[in-house]
């Protein structure tokens, strides 16, 4: 990292598509075999996509995601319509998605939650049948493959997050992935104030560029991704073998090459979750109610929409600590406290 920082200070180009930005962008393109626009975070990448594709109308979306998914729709002037999720994967149920589509639907914005692939083939068929766009919020899906293809390659486009909490990160950062050159042209202009040349503009763009410093961080981490994922896999398998039997887990579709981004567990009910979470906190173990609340219950939505499956799942899901530096001893400590404080 220090060598890269030196490079930046020698060149004295700190942002505006400098050499490190360009190198990282090209690497992310070649490893996905897609066009990629490296931007300043994963929320603005959602917004750039929604803006470019048009969302003034309804956007069918998932209630089981981080709040950024719904907020991006609202921020871009769209109306979120929630499709309930499949309890096995926590991802939007294609049948519920199809039922939620109406005459004002502009597109679908669905999350591969925890990096677990949505039913991409069914959803692509639905989008095609209705003549609408399909964007995946792939914030958690770095290096996930489904049927041998990057998960980013499904649908019209995908939005990635490279935030410091993600498995690959550039401190803050995000990415738009697509095969569609026209769409990428709109995104690239949109992320750079709408410039088409130094003195011409063809749309009201925004500043979503990212800096050389952020790109340097990404370039340092990228070569280590196979080791990072292998370590996460080993830790996840250790949890699988040792968590209390009464906890359940989402199910990964077949033919998925997973990235082990999170380790969510489901308690029998919210009371059991809250009791265990508090006891773990007492022991210095940080956990997160990821994802809670169910987004259809956000207080600023204009109307209430029921999604009983998502509401029920989000009330009893907890993510256990999972990061490559977690030591064997620390994981044993977590498992010990989990067992001590878990009641069937
Ligand atoms: C599903 C999902 N979408 C979007 C985002 C937003 O990404 P960022 O923090 O890079 O803006 C997040 C961040 O946690 C997320 O989990």
Helix segment tally? 12
The geometry reads as: globular
Q: Specify the structural class.
A: alpha/beta
- Give a quick account of the main beta sheet: strands, pairing sense, barrel closure: 7 strands, mixed
Instruction: Tell me which CATH architecture of the largest domain applies here.
Output: 3-Layer(aba) Sandwich
Radius of gyration: 20 Å
Total number of domains: 2
Strand content: 15-25%
Q: Please estimate the helix content.
A: 25-40%
Low-confidence stretches: none
* SSE series: HHEHEHEHEHEEEEEHEEHHEEHHEH
Strand order of the largest sheet: 1-9-8-5-4-2-3
Tell me the distance between the termini. Answer: 48 Å
Topology record:
Layout: H1 2-11, H2 19-32, E1 35-39, H3 42-53, E2 58-61, H4 67-75, E3 79-82, H5 94-100, E4 105-111, H6 120-130, E5 133-137, E6 145-146, E7 149-150, E8 157-161, E9 174-178, H7 181-190, E10 195-197, E11 200-201, H8 212-221, H9 225-242, E12 256-257, E13 264-266, H10 270-282, H11 308-315, E14 317-319, H12 328-340
Parallel strand pairs: 2-3, 2-4, 4-5, 5-8
Antiparallel strand pairs: 1-9, 6-7, 6-12, 8-9, 10-11, 13-14
Helix pairs in contact: 2-8, 3-4, 3-7
The chain binds pyridoxal-5'-phosphate.
The site of pyridoxal-5'-phosphate has 13 residues, from helix 3 and helix 4.
